[in-house]
Amino acid sequence: MTDTTLTHLPALPDTPFLPTEKKLGLYPVVDTLSWIERLLEAGVTTIQLRIKDQPDTEVEEIIQQAIELGKRFNARLFINDYWRLAVKHQAYGVHLGQEDLLTADLKAIHQAGLRLGVSTHDDEELALAIAVRPSYIALGHIFPTQTKDMPSAPQGVAELKRHVATIPDYPTVAIGGISIDRVPEVLACGVGSIAVVSAITKAPDWRQATAELLRLIEHEER
Ligand SMILES: Cc1ncc(COP(=O)(O)OP(=O)(O)O)c(N)n1
Ligand SMILES: Cc1nc(C(=O)O)sc1CCOP(=O)(O)O
Ligand SMILES: [Mg+2]
């Protein structure tokens, strides 16, 4: 992402996106309604539905039901990518990547009262995210991940700490390759939230993994 990309951003809202909690805590990113339901029942309060590359017509029903579940459990449910459907069905929030920022109608998302989370992977992407004034900023990928092909190298904890220190007032989310045993060193960087996929969905016992992640991220003194 170059400086010129800043000038390619579509029209930005006049005010920041609605705030969210500074510490969003454990933030599972999952791709089915059943994962959403079982994790909300297990006590998760921040969660994302991430379905990739399907036509809107294929996912609208699932997205609508996920949003209803989020409301029923009074949880912060973010929809990845499908911002039009998230606006249509009044999700709590939307998560967008850098490329999405160039094409999404940010004013429409803002006007509809949805929170916005934005992905970043380096200094330039962070500068662009700050220009958008989203509700939270995600920083990734911290460690190697099997879940998604990444074009860049992992940023590691030293970069994570440096990035978090440049945005002390922002809610931040660390993502990418974060296993249970790595949680303490990630939290030590000052992030308010840790997003995980495989630490839960590939755990031998997802219930136990979720309980342990909730304890480490939300219940331990820090
Ligand atoms: C919390 C969180 N952080 C980063 C991402 C990655 O989003 P994006 O860059 O849009 O890539 P895809 O997830 O769409 O492949 C995320 N989803 N959630
Ligand atoms: C969806 C996603 N986005 C990333 C980013 O860095 O933007 S890393 C990632 C995958 C995270 O999965 P896991 O916890 O299994 O490593
Ligand atoms: Mg995306």
Automatic annotation (TrEMBL):
Sites where the protein binds Mg(2+): 81, 100
Domain Thiamine phosphate synthase/TenI, residue spans: 31-200
Residues where 4-amino-2-methyl-5-(diphosphooxymethyl)pyrimidine binds: 48-52, 80, 119, 148
Residues binding 2-[(2R,5Z)-2-carboxy-4-methylthiazol-5(2H)-ylidene]ethyl phosphate: 145-147, 177, 197-198
One function term, GO molecular function aspect: magnesium ion binding
Coiled coil (UniProt feature): none
Reaction catalyzed: 2-[(2R,5Z)-2-carboxy-4-methylthiazol-5(2H)-ylidene]ethyl phosphate + 4-amino-2-methyl-5-(diphosphooxymethyl)pyrimidine + 2 H(+) = thiamine phosphate + CO2 + diphosphate; 2-(2-carboxy-4-methylthiazol-5-yl)ethyl phosphate + 4-amino-2-methyl-5-(diphosphooxymethyl)pyrimidine + 2 H(+) = thiamine phosphate + CO2 + diphosphate; 4-methyl-5-(2-phosphooxyethyl)-thiazole + 4-amino-2-methyl-5-(diphosphooxymethyl)pyrimidine + H(+) = thiamine phosphate + diphosphate
Pathway in which the depicted protein is active: Cofactor biosynthesis; thiamine diphosphate biosynthesis; thiamine phosphate from 4-amino-2-methyl-5-diphosphomethylpyrimidine and 4-methyl-5-(2-phosphoethyl)-thiazole: step 1/1
Example GO BP: thiamine diphosphate biosynthetic process
Keyword Magnesium: yes
GO cellular component: cytoplasm
Superkingdom: Bacteria
EC number(s) on file: 2.5.1.3
Cofactor binding notes: Binds 1 Mg(2+) ion per subunit.
Keywords of this entry: Magnesium, Metal-binding, Thiamine biosynthesis, Transferase
Main function: Condenses 4-methyl-5-(beta-hydroxyethyl)thiazole monophosphate (THZ-P) and 2-methyl-4-amino-5-hydroxymethyl pyrimidine pyrophosphate (HMP-PP) to form thiamine monophosphate (TMP).
Name of the protein in question: Thiamine-phosphate synthase
Protein species of origin: Limnobaculum eriocheiris
Phylogenetic classification of the source organism: Bacteria, Pseudomonadati, Pseudomonadota, Gammaproteobacteria, Enterobacterales
Gene for this chain: thiE
